[in-house]
Amino acid sequence: MPSSSEDIIGLYQRHASTWDKDRTRSLFEKAWLDRFLAIAGHNASILDLGCGMGEPIARYLIEQGCSVTGVDTSHTFIDLCRNRFPDQEWIVGDMRNRVPGKQFQGVLAWDSFFHLNHADQRGMFSVFRRYAAPKAALLFTSGSSYGEAIGEYQGDPLYHASLDTAEYESLLQEQGFEVVSHVVDDATCGHHTVWLARLNR
Fold it and tell me: For 77-112, what is each residue's pLDDT tens digit?
């Protein structure tokens, strides 16, 4: 069955409750989140784009004293977030569109940005910049090389795409971000390819 980036919204909404049960809470991302917070600051304001159901990443950030604004297209995910963390801000929305009307000390797109197609990924870097306060941290995951890949979840095709390393570096630089750390296929983090950057403006 063919798949595109536009199918992702429906997939996660259909399977939101199952994903909530399946998603590990082991926080294998902790080392990267700690590096992110070392730039953004503990007690930072964080924008979590594609926040899912808020666990384990948003929970960890909240436990570190951060204020979190989460954005996700799935209203089921956002309802779960609101029930779990009622003191934070949760928005049903698309990361590609301007949703919050403010800037943040940290911008996060973990395991969400890579579901966008190539053109939409390119367009996201100006969105990251728009949301980033001066010297803000940016953390996102990507693929390891240029291309598209179709995975599977609950019998539905699951779309992923990636630009190549040089293009990500160029897009970050154009928006004033400096790469702090970049690891391809990080074996200590579930073989994720991770980018951590800082806004220099």
Answer: 999 999 999 999 999 999 998 678 899 999 999 999
- Residue 55 belongs to some domain of the structure: yes
Strands annotated E in 53-103: 67-72, 89-92
Residue carrying structure tokens 């940016």: 138
CATH of the domain at 65: 3.40.50.150
Q: Is the pTM of this model over 0.70?
A: yes
pLDDT in tens, 134-189: 999 999 999 999 999 999 999 999 999 999 999 999 999 999 999 999 999 999 99
Q: By C-alpha distance, which of 100, 40, 97, 98 is closest to 70?
A: 100
Domain count, the chain: 1
- Domain membership of residue 2 (yes or no) is no
Q: Which residues contact 87 (CB under 8 A, 6 or more apart)?
A: none
* Domain assignment of residue 38, given as a range: 7-199
| Residues 72 and 78 sit within 8 Å (Cβ to Cβ) | yes
